[in-house]
Amino acid sequence: MSLPTGIQGILLAYDTGILPPPFSHVFQLSLDWSKGDLDTKLDLHYTDREGLSEEELLDEGFSLHDDYRFAGKIDSSWTQALQGLLAETRWSNKPLEEGGIVLSFLPKQAKEDIKTPSNQEDWLLLAQEIIQAIYETSKKEAPLTLRYQKVEASQTRECVLTLYFATRSVRVTVQGVSQTWPWEEATRLMKLVFTPDYDYSKASTSPGKQPGAYLDCGDGYWFALGKGITNSHPSFDAVQKIKSTFDRFF
User: Fold this and answer.
1) pLDDT at site 113
2) SS3 state at 246
């Protein structure tokens, strides 16, 4: 499939639907590549928080100031990703019932045509990645860094994986030696990393010393794979896949 003719950007709107507060939110993304750069606007707003106290928000990992706005340029490497997904997207005639993503095209038409992509998960993932790129570009957040340690009787090896959303690039450092890694492979690994269950009662601020595999997902807490990190469902061994992916770097 090809990119629709005359498209110079998109307007993307998302609503979490029935998700309860403090998680429920809406956002709008304007992404305009007509001038070569990717001109970007973000308006993110968390909804229905009026009845929640600051303590309740903090307990869930939020704050009183989670809404965010941005207007500026992000790296043009995201343009190709946007255009690629747009070219392969099929559209649904069914209205959204419980939240989701709708799109319209730039430049705006006199009668704006709102479209619903059938591949909702793909668009939500890309939107979330772009929002993370905005956070890095605006210095709101640092690049995401995962640390993995393999402890054996004879040696301990470490792999550090850093995702730079701002430039859509990845760096892997193994025993102090760095190399680049394809973005698509890194995002597949990220899906795996956030698939299993994490038990924070078994987390530590430092990796274990006993033989095993340990992972820090970027928040400073280390988990033993198979103990602090366990599979959500017996039909899919995410823990072993995480281990084997990181172990390939050794």
Assistant:
1) 85
2) helix
Locate the domains of the chain by residue range.
9-137, 144-247
Q: How far apart are the C-alpha atoms of 244 and 143, rounded to whole Å?
A: 24
Region 208-229: mean pLDDT is 96
Q: Which residues contact 221 (CB under 8 A, 6 or more apart)?
A: 200, 203, 204, 205
Q: Tell me: pLDDT of 110 over 60.
A: no
* pLDDT higher at 245 or 113: 245
User: What's the CA gap between 158 and 79, in Å, rounded?
Assistant: 34
Q: Is the pLDDT of residue 2 over 80?
A: no
- Of 237, 174, 179, 228, whose CA–CA distance to 206 is shortest? 228
Residue with tokens 């550090």: 160
pLDDT score of 4: 67
**111 pLDDT exceeds 70?**
no
Alpha-carbon distance of 152 to 156, in angstroms, equals: 6
C-beta separation of 71 from 40 below 8 A: yes
Give DSSP secondary structure letters for 147-214. EEEEE-SS-EEEEEEEEETTTTEEEEEETTEEEE--HHHHHHHHHHHTSSEE-GGG-BSS--SSSEEE
Transcribe 45-112 into DSSP letters: EE-S-TT--HHHHHHTT--S---EEEEEEE-THHHHHHHHHHHH--EE-SPPSS-EEEEEEESPPSS-
Beta bridge partners of 103: 12, 115
Judged against a pLDDT cut of 90, whether residue 5 lies above it is answered with no
Please name the amino acid found at residue 6: G
